[in-house]
Design goal:
By secondary structure, this protein is mostly helical. It contains eleven helices and no strands. Helix 3 packs antiparallel against helix 8.
């Protein structure tokens, strides 16, 4: 599939990134913040452009840009009356405009749609490690995330810092977006986070089942999408997303059939 990256590492990277995106996406659906991942993915564009101009890793540039944006969104969320969606929208439009202006034209298409084949071994190992961190930290704060979503007042009464949990959560979103933009690009990263969780919601009967299926569909979409892209010799990013949509349609039909039965 690629001359620079062994096939096994490539598929492992896709599997871990898909798992992290699916697991984190399950909470984004619960919190009704499905568009946040999509908007934040565009924030990565100027960071990637600056990194390319400095001959540095686009993933590192995307991560730094996303951390700055996440802290900014969190700060304004604490000090203003605007909803998080509005704040993300402001950062999204500004970052997209700046990113398109400063990204070199030859690299713009890859930045928008990604290409996991261009990952180096070091970038791939870093992506796997960061995916593991995202999964572990998300699991550690999962109960507090759900509790703060159900009732912030109840969470605060149980001495849960909703503000801190929200910051950690946004940083996790920023991290998974940063490691995924090289995979499916800034335009499609939101889909990699949301579609597995949406598919899982169609067939799940409890939170544990929901988390499991979100991770499963994240991995299945990434691995099968990479395999199909390799067989068809086409760009993997769009194929991964389309594969995820196929899983969603199948689970939707299963749900519809079960309801009628």
């Amino acid at each position: 599939m690629t001359d620079s990256l062994p096939i096994l590492i490539l598929f492992l990277t896709g599997a871990f990134v898909g798992a992290a995106a699916g697991y984190l996406g399950s909470f984004m659906v619960i919190k009704r913040m499905s568009l946040v991942g999509d908007a934040l993915s565009h924030v990565a564009l100027p960071g990637m452009a600056i990194a390319l101009a400095l001959n540095s890793s686009p993933i590192l540039g995307a991560f730094i840009a996303l951390v700055i944006a996440v802290i900014g969104i969190w700060y304004f969320q604490q000090t203003s009356t605007l909803y998080p969606e509005a704040l993300v929208g402001i950062f999204f439009t500004a970052s997209l405009a700046i990113g398109i202006l400063v990204t070199p034209e030859p690299e713009l298409l890859e930045a928008l749609f990604g290409n996991i084949r261009t990952l180096s071994v070091i970038e791939s190992i870093a992506a796997i490690c960061l995916s593991l961190v995202v999964i572990i930290v998300t699991a550690a704060i999962s109960k507090k995330l759900v509790l703060s979503t159900v009732s912030e007042e109840l969470a605060q009464s149980l001495k849960t810092s909703v503000s801190s949990i929200n910051l950690v959560y946004l940083l996790l979103v920023g991290t998974v977006v940063a490691i995924g933009v090289k995979f499916v690009g800034t335009l499609l990263m939101g889909a990699l986070v949301i579609i597995p969780a949406a598919s899982a919601k169609n067939i799940s009967r409890g939170l544990k089942s929901y988390y499991f299926w979100s991770v499963f569909f994240g991995i299945a979409s990434a691995v099968s999408g990479l395999l199909i892209a390799d067989l068809c010799r086409t760009s993997p990013g769009p194929i991964v997303v389309l594969t995820g949509i196929c899983f969603f349609l199948v689970t939707y039909l299963v749900k519809s059939f079960s309801v009628r039965k």
